[in-house]
Design goal:
heterodimer, A: alpha+beta, PH-domain like, 2 domains, 3-stranded antiparallel sheet, 5 helices, about 50% helix, elongated, B: alpha+beta, 4 domains, 7-stranded antiparallel sheet, 20 strands, disordered N terminus
């Protein structure tokens, strides 16, 4: 459906960026899981001589599944950014800004140009390093009063913002 | 300014010109200050600024007492029982608020100058708020019995921003309001808009512009709507809260405890008798509830009168607390006609609207209650088209003529399937519960048969609900906007307009994709008071996409209109 005219993807560097944040998250979570496992194992096995024989299989299964879990977290955090990137499109048409996003829950959003109240360009430290920015468009709406587009290059985000807030005449939006 | 009743105009203009020779005639015009307030302080620009009425302290403290009702209650009870701890506790909350009120009275100043309402406030950190008069959405006036004794009223000035009123002037004397009216009216004239001023005019009774009556609501209708409404539940909630409070604090209502009441009943009633007593109690309860609802509606909306003056609608109503509110027609974002089951039988409807601003977290203050949540509390269904045509000339409210689109053909199947899955789950849970009760807890048969049987009773209800739900939702696109109808018990029919659409979205969950369906959502400003979001689920995916594109194009090309 996105192969309609004029839809663009965000900057591919977004995948790298998301993978880095994903890797950090995975390391933290994996670290917590493995540390907990290590503490649990040590307390059980240092407790008594017999523990090694009695809990051998339990320990093995527990370690196996938690290692698998940690691996799965890493893999998911590696694959997910690519899927997210593949599902995100945007277009600035005659009518306004249109955004497609979402891997499992898919959303298609549209903000008419004349309804834009103001627009922000936001950059975190990692985003700044990769020259990427998030554009946040605010409307006077209630449920969707701000619409974000992550992963544009900083220059194109700024351009897009300027383009969106440029209006020929003063319009009362509400 | 021609209608300005102040007789000392000229004296004051002269004096003001002495004070500020550099001021333009226009701005002098709007500073007609009453003698007793003119002696107040001056802003940096040298403009004399006005104070609130001296009774403000009392009303402000009372407003704060409302939010500290629990500590205040504890304090009162403890004082009544001769203890002092509760009083200290209450003082922790109340003394600062009294101090705050006094400081507020002595530091708050306001003035209208150069088409701007300027309010300054604060002792340590000073706040200066400037509201362009042309941006004022509504000026609501509020006058309860106590206000009337002091001949004052509360003024709320609202713009499109945020949830709270831009300025609450609590309270101003009626003469002062008259002056404010004149000032806003003059400024609005300068700004070529006439919005809030008319309503101030209406309140003080000096109507300059020709206005014609749109609707009055006789008390009989209010009684009818009260009988159909569950409004009384609010009071029951409050009573319950008080009961719990009493119970914890004083153990005063020990004798009234429900358990005790049940114990005192004749025990020989048997099952049928118990059921009958329960039913009777429920009926009495419902009746009392309805009476409370009737009372609420009559008190709130007595003498309801809606009139149209230029491009504004004015509403005045209230028996004890009088409310006067203005709704600029072009600010109406959303119109919703709502009917619950009983109202449908009685051919009644209520109309709710949404305007940007002032509608939100603050909940139910009487002014917003009247102007937005209950725009027209009750009206015979036959008169609805007439009223709506006052709101929008391009709105043709003939529901049978619309090109209605129902949900996707398979929506019913999908909802039915969900209902059946839910039923099976309930039956399984009920079965497990029954087994647990019978074997492990040795419960009586009437208990475990209940957990076994109830899910089977619920199943047909769930299925009927699913079918009704799939039929109740429909959508239509007209020349001016879109109409969405939904609701099984309370049928809500809402309309919004292309130029009021703030953003659009089509969403698909994994289940939606399997059924080739989508949810179309339309966002407007201040979607809230009418309690009806335009989020249409189970639409045919292709149709939803088509409507998304069409609405996208329409909402972009329809410029916000000026009237």
């Amino acid at each position: 459906m996105y192969k309609q005219t004029g839809f663009q993807r965000v900057d591919p560097k977004r995948v790298i960026l998301d993978r880095i944040t994903g890797a950090i998250m995975s390391t933290v979570f994996g670290g917590i899981i493995l540390t907990t496992m290590a503490i649990a194992t040590l307390t059980v096995h240092l407790g008594s001589e017999m523990a090694f024989d009695r809990f051998f299989w339990v320990t093995l299964v527990a370690w196996g599944s938690s290692l698998f879990l940690v691996l799965a977290i890493f893999i998911l955090n590696f694959v997910w950014p690519r899927l997210k990137y593949n599902a995100t499109f945007w277009r600035l048409g005659e009518d306004g800004l249109e955004i497609w996003r979402g891997v499992i829950w898919r959303h298609q959003l549209s903000v008419p140009r004349a309804r834009v109240q103001h627009a922000d360009v936001v950059q975190g430290p990692l985003q700044r390093h990769y020259g990427i920015a998030t554009l946040i468009v605010h409307t006077a709406g209630t449920q969707n009063s701000s619409v974000g587009l992550v992963g544009l290059t900083h220059a194109s985000a700024v351009d897009l913002r300027d383009e969106l807030i440029r209006q020929g005449k003063e319009i009362h939006v509400v | 300014m021609s209608s300005e009743p102040s007789e000392s105009n000229h004296d004051w203009e002269e004096k003001l010109e002495e004070v500020i020779p550099e001021a333009s005639p226009e701005s002098v015009d709007v500073q007609e200050v009453l003698p007793e307030t003119a002696a107040g302080s001056k802003s940096r620009a040298g403009m004399p600024m006005k104070r609130l009425h001296a009774a403000s302290i009392v009303f402000d403290v009372m407003a704060h007492f409302k939010s500290y009702i629990v500590p205040a209650g504890i304090g009162l009870f403890s004082a009544a029982s001769g203890r002092t701890e509760g009083l200290y506790f209450a003082a922790i909350f109340l003394v600062p608020s009294i101090l705050y009120s006094i400081i507020r009275y002595f530091t708050l100043r306001f003035v209208i100058k150069n088409n701007e309402l300027i309010v300054t406030q604060g002792l340590l950190s000073r706040q200066v708020r400037i509201v362009p008069v042309s941006r004022i959405q509504n000026v609501d006036l509020l006058q309860n019995v106590l206000h009337r004794m002091f001949n004052v009223a509360e003024v709320r000035v609202e713009t499109a921003s945020g949830n709270e009123p831009e300025a609450i002037l609590r309270v101003l004397s009626m003469t002062e309001i008259d002056v404010l009216r004149a000032a806003i009216f003059a400024s609005q004239k300068n700004a070529n808009t006439t919005e809030a001023a008319d309503e101030l005019e209406a309140f003080t009774g000096t109507v300059d512009q020709a206005s014609h009556q749109v609707l009055t609501i006789p008390t009989g209708w209010l009684v009818k709507i009260g009988l159909t409404s569950n409004r009384g539940m609010v009071l029951v909630g409050i009573l319950f809260g008080l009961y719990v409070q009493f119970d914890q604090e004083m153990k005063m209502l020990e004798g009234l405890k429900l358990g005790r009441l049940a114990q005192d009943l004749p025990v020989q009633l048997g099952l049928v008798g118990q059921v009958l007593v329960a039913l009777g109690a429920a009926l009495v309860f419902l009746f009392v509830l309805r009476l409370v609802s009737v009372a609420w509606f009559v008190l709130r909306f007595h003498g309801y009168r809606m009139s149209r003056s230029g491009e504004d609608l004015r509403i005045r109503c209230g028996l004890l607390t009088k409310v006067s509110a203005t709704v600029p027609i072009r600010r109406i974002q959303f119109i919703s006609v709502q009917q619950n089951l009983l109202m449908r039988y009685m051919n009644l409807a209520s109309v709710r609207i949404e305007t940007a601003g002032g509608a939100g977290s603050e909940g139910e203050n009487p002014a917003t209650t009247v102007a937005r949540r209950w725009f027209v509390p009750v009206v015979p269904i036959s008169q609805v088209p007439n009223i709506l045509s006052q709101l929008r000339t391009d709105l043709d409210w003939d529901l049978s003529q619309l090109d209605w689109q129902v949900l996707a053909p398979k929506a019913r199947v999908r909802l039915l399937r969900r209902a059946i899955i839910q039923s099976i789950l309930f039956i399984l849970i009920g079965g497990c519960l029954a087994v647990c009760q019978a074997y492990f807890m040795h419960a009586k048969m009437q208990f475990w048969s209940l957990s076994l049987g109830l899910p089977f009773l619920i199943t047909p209800l769930l299925i009927v609900h699913a079918i009704k739900k799939s039929r109740s939702k429909r959508y239509a696109r007209t020349g001016a906007g879109i109409v969405y109808q939904s609701g099984i018990w309370t049928r809500k029919t809402s309309v919004t307009f292309f130029e009021k659409i703030q953003s659009l979205s089509v969403s698909q969950s994994p289940f939606d994709r399997r059924w080739k369906m989508a949810t179309l959502a339309i966002d407007t400003a201040a979607a809230g008071p009418a309690d009806h979001l335009i989020e249409i689920p189970y639409m045919d995916a292709h149709f939803a996409q088509q409507e998304f594109d069409a609405l996208n194009q329409k909402s972009a090309t329809h410029e916000p209109r000026y009237s």
